[in-house]
Amino acid sequence: MRVGLFIPCYVNQFYPQVGIATLQLLQKLGVEVVYPLNQTCCGQPMANSGFEHLTKGCNELFVDNFNEFEYIVCPSGSCTLHIKDHLHDERNEAAAIAVRGKVYELAEFLTDVLNVESLNAYFPHKVGFHQSCHGQRGLKLSQMTELVAEPFSKPEKLLRMVKGLEFVPLSRQDECCGFGGTFCVTEEAVSAKMGKDRVEDHLQHGAEFIAGGDMSCLMHMEGILKRQQSKVQVKHLAEILNA
């Protein structure tokens, strides 16, 4: 199995350890991983701001970089969903459609493609998991609590395989953290209040770490934790599964 590793901009720029953990984790599971060096932004910030017509170059470059791979794996639900839903290429739309069909968020890839049932990982801490909106409502990585349906969570399934980890239940397990990409810029006060509420839920339940599948959301909450001088840290799912 040959996989193209798709790393979001903010991971590359601010949290490179998450990209490294994703690479190492996939390699431990026997996957041949290739990182296309020419990859850039997938175009999500422009598209989410109403400027999808400016993403043409990003789209074409993404297809050029990733068309050759059997699977494409990304440690971000929002970037994965953007490619799945919005990737187009006027030069070769068939190639773009093919790429859209083989891009996977990390937890989704581990559970649905690799069918991982056990992990050689150890993380002896109390961990609360933040399920980001794009992953939950777009990629269906976990069940939405407002639905009368059987609950499930692909990230939680993986975290429960980690030795020593105590999974911390939350009062509002699928509540938005308030990041929302450009929302945190245009609606700063609302975004900050939502983030404080999301962090408080974890703190009230004794979490030592807030884990998640999107570093953008974790970055938002990390800023709040630091301003509160809290000892609670954030960790991407890949870092814990690779621990």
Main attributes of the structure:
alpha/beta, Rossmann fold, 8 strands, Cys_rich_dom, (Fe-S)-binding protein
What does this structure look like?
The chain is α/β, with parallel strands linked by helices. The chain folds into two domains: 2-113, Rossmann fold (3-Layer(aba) Sandwich), CATH 3.40.50; 126-241, Rossmann fold, CATH 3.40.50. It has helices at residues 9-14, 16-28, 44-48, 56-66, 77-86, 93-100, 106-113, 133-138, 154-159, 183-186, 188-204, 215-227, 237-241; strands spanning 2-5, 32-34, 71-74, 103-105, 126-130, 166-168, 209-212, 233-236. It has a four-stranded parallel β-sheet, with helices on both faces. Strands 6-5-7-8 form a four-stranded parallel β-sheet. The longest helix is centred in the last third of the chain and has 17 residues, at 188-204. It is globular and about 50 Å long. This is (Fe-S)-binding protein. Residues 3-84, 127-221 form the Cysteine-rich domain. InterPro entries: Cys_rich_dom (IPR004017). It holds the Pfam family CCG.
